[in-house]
């Protein structure tokens, strides 16, 4: 390789992967952390005097576990609502802040963005470390800060894929999978807690790791952006001498590499083939198109299912386990372990994208390049909807052992969801609007995700812990997501038919 040496690039890749696995998406291990918070009696003061927390088989209320109708269990609704609200706010920030954080990254580049991420992340972990049951309200501040810091880590690491040319898509999806897998960090904290390591010690250790983030920022990451395609003699980090000036120069060089071979083009660049002039489309015409609106529905509904499941996970398990905290702990651990395997599921989506990319290059001679590229997104969209439907059906059946299947379908579905989202936007809309369209769809889907709290309140309140009707409604809503791949498929057939006749 020219420019930066292969060992430096591999060091950047591997340390970035470790950073995403260990820090970026820890929010999604919320269920493991809630278990600790309940043990530490966070928000227990909100419980009514006659309400009792779900105890284990030898709980304090008479020495026996609860045996009876699981939907009439005595529990602390106010406590569960507080935990659900914290997760709702944090998960909202996880998506909604994608748009402004992307702007920060574009405007202020890598070093400034990462220093901001380190500040937010370290502040959040220190706040959690020094909270107690008396100061539990600080979690409303700490968890959103932790989430935004993690998103900034992910955004700055995704550009590492630009260092590896043809494997760019696979590496990007690998990083997204690592983001999902980092939810296992809270499982490790839970296991350490059960072995006698207190919560404060674990989060202080995570805070100390900020020194590692700072070192990586200045030694293994660029000060600006990693250009794509990569220009000759590109250097960064340890090898960079002139800093921003040199990177600005190499970015200019990368723009002069046109025309490129088709094999090195990104998905966004592959849409328009040679000899096929593409009419310019405005940003707002893309936003108000039927294609974009249905994609927003597809993403919002599936994401709502995932957020609702994670946010209410502890409460759901407590009901199904009839208050047996040993069972709740076992299933919480199993769920967190399956989340770790997101890093293994996500690359399959990237490999599928690369395969479809080759198929597009073969068929582009006979068909419109844009039609073939858009058609290649249909299987990913439909498969993701199918996986979510299976996950929703299993989650709706109140049988505890079946939840193992739910865990597997949930992690695979979520791994495909976000990779498929980005892939579709690159194929279906002009490349110059990709950043804005991606940020907007994530922000709008975040607004829809706020519904998880009123849904949870409805289930715990008027429905008296019986989520059956809520689940039926959401399953029917999930069927609506199949409309999106169907409409895209029909649109491709309609556009391709005149060419076949010709």
UniProtKB/TrEMBL annotation:
<feature type="transmembrane region" description="Helical">
    <location>
        <begin position="12"/>
        <end position="37"/>
    </location>
</feature>
<keyword id="KW-0472">Membrane</keyword>
<feature type="transmembrane region" description="Helical">
    <location>
        <begin position="292"/>
        <end position="310"/>
    </location>
</feature>
<feature type="transmembrane region" description="Helical">
    <location>
        <begin position="83"/>
        <end position="105"/>
    </location>
</feature>
<dbReference type="InterPro" id="IPR027197">
    <property type="entry name" value="SLC43A3"/>
</dbReference>
<dbReference type="GO" id="GO:0015208">
    <property type="term" value="F:guanine transmembrane transporter activity"/>
</dbReference>
<feature type="transmembrane region" description="Helical">
    <location>
        <begin position="468"/>
        <end position="489"/>
    </location>
</feature>
<feature type="transmembrane region" description="Helical">
    <location>
        <begin position="404"/>
        <end position="425"/>
    </location>
</feature>
<dbReference type="InterPro" id="IPR011701">
    <property type="entry name" value="MFS"/>
</dbReference>
<feature type="transmembrane region" description="Helical">
    <location>
        <begin position="172"/>
        <end position="193"/>
    </location>
</feature>
<feature type="compositionally biased region" description="Polar residues">
    <location>
        <begin position="251"/>
        <end position="264"/>
    </location>
</feature>
<feature type="transmembrane region" description="Helical">
    <location>
        <begin position="437"/>
        <end position="456"/>
    </location>
</feature>
<feature type="transmembrane region" description="Helical">
    <location>
        <begin position="330"/>
        <end position="351"/>
    </location>
</feature>
<dbReference type="GO" id="GO:0015207">
    <property type="term" value="F:adenine transmembrane transporter activity"/>
</dbReference>
<dbReference type="GO" id="GO:0015245">
    <property type="term" value="F:fatty acid transmembrane transporter activity"/>
</dbReference>
<dbReference type="GO" id="GO:0035344">
    <property type="term" value="P:hypoxanthine transport"/>
</dbReference>
<dbReference type="InterPro" id="IPR036259">
    <property type="entry name" value="MFS_trans_sf"/>
</dbReference>
<feature type="region of interest" description="Disordered">
    <location>
        <begin position="242"/>
        <end position="279"/>
    </location>
</feature>
<protein>
    <submittedName>
        <fullName>Solute carrier family 43 member 3</fullName>
    </submittedName>
</protein>
<keyword id="KW-0812">Transmembrane</keyword>
<feature type="transmembrane region" description="Helical">
    <location>
        <begin position="199"/>
        <end position="219"/>
    </location>
</feature>
<keyword id="KW-1133">Transmembrane helix</keyword>
<dbReference type="Pfam" id="PF07690">
    <property type="entry name" value="MFS_1"/>
</dbReference>
<dbReference type="GO" id="GO:0016323">
    <property type="term" value="C:basolateral plasma membrane"/>
</dbReference>
<feature type="transmembrane region" description="Helical">
    <location>
        <begin position="136"/>
        <end position="160"/>
    </location>
</feature>
<feature type="transmembrane region" description="Helical">
    <location>
        <begin position="371"/>
        <end position="398"/>
    </location>
</feature>
<dbReference type="GO" id="GO:0042910">
    <property type="term" value="F:xenobiotic transmembrane transporter activity"/>
</dbReference>
<feature type="transmembrane region" description="Helical">
    <location>
        <begin position="112"/>
        <end position="130"/>
    </location>
</feature>
């Amino acid at each position: 390789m020219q420019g930066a040496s292969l060992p430096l690039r591999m060091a950047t890749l591997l340390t970035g992967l470790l950073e995403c696995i260990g820090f970026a998406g820890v929010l999604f291990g919320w269920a493991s952390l809630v278990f600790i918070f309940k043990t530490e009696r966070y928000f227990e003061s909100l419980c009514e005097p006659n309400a009792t927390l779900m105890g284990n088989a030898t709980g304090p209320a008479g020495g026996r576990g609860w045996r009876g109708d699981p939907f009439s269990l005595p529990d602390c609704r106010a406590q569960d609502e507080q935990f659900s609200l914290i997760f709702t706010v944090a998960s909202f920030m996880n998506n909604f802040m994608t748009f402004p954080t992307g702007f920060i990254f574009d405007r202020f580049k890598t070093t400034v963005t990462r220093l901001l991420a380190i500040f937010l992340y370290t502040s959040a972990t220190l706040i959690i470390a020094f909270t107690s049951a008396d100061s539990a309200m600080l979690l409303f501040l700490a968890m959103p800060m932790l989430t935004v810091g993690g998103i900034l880590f992910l955004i700055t690491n995704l550009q590492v894929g630009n260092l590896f040319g043809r494997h760019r898509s696979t590496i990007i999806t690998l990083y997204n999978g690592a983001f999902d897998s980092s939810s296992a960090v809270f499982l490790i904290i839970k296991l350490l807690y059960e072995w006698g390591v207190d919560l404060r010690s674990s989060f202080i250790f995570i805070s100390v790791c900020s020194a590692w983030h700072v070192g990586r920022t200045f030694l293994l990451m660029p000060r600006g952006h990693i250009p794509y395609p990569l220009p000759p003699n590109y250097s960064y980090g340890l090898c960079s001498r002139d800093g921003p000036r040199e990177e600005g120069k190499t970015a200019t060089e990368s723009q002069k590499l046109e025309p490129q071979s088709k094999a090195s083009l990104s998905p966004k660049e592959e849409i328009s083939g040679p000899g096929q002039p593409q009419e310019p489309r405005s940003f707002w015409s893309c936003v108000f198109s039927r294609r974009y609106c249905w994609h927003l529905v597809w993403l919002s509904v599936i994401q709502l299912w995932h957020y609702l499941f994670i946010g209410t996970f502890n409460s759901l398990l407590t009901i199904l386990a009839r208050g047996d905290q040993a069972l709740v702990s076992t299933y919480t651990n199993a769920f967190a372990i399956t989340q770790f395997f997101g890093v293994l599921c996500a690359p399959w989506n990237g490999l599928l994208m690369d395969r479809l990319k080759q198929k597009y290059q073969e068929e582009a001679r006979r068909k419109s390049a844009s039609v073939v590229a858009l058609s290649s997104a249909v299987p990913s969209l439909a498969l993701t909807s199918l996986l979510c439907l299976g996950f929703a059906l299993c989650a709706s059946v109140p049988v505890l052992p079946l939840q193992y299947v739910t865990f597997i379908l949930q992690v695979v579905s979520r791994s495909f969801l976000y990779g498929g989202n980005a892939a579709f936007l690159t194929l279906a809309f002009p490349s110059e609007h990709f950043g804005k369209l991606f940020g907007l769809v994530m922000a709008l889907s975040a607004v829809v995700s706020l519904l998880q709290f009123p849904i949870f309140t409805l289930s715990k309140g008027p429905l008296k812990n019986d989520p059956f009707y809520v689940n039926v409604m959401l399953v029917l809503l999930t069927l609506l997501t199949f409309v999106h791949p169907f409409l895209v498929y029909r649109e491709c057939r309609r556009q391709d038919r005149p060419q076949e006749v010709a």
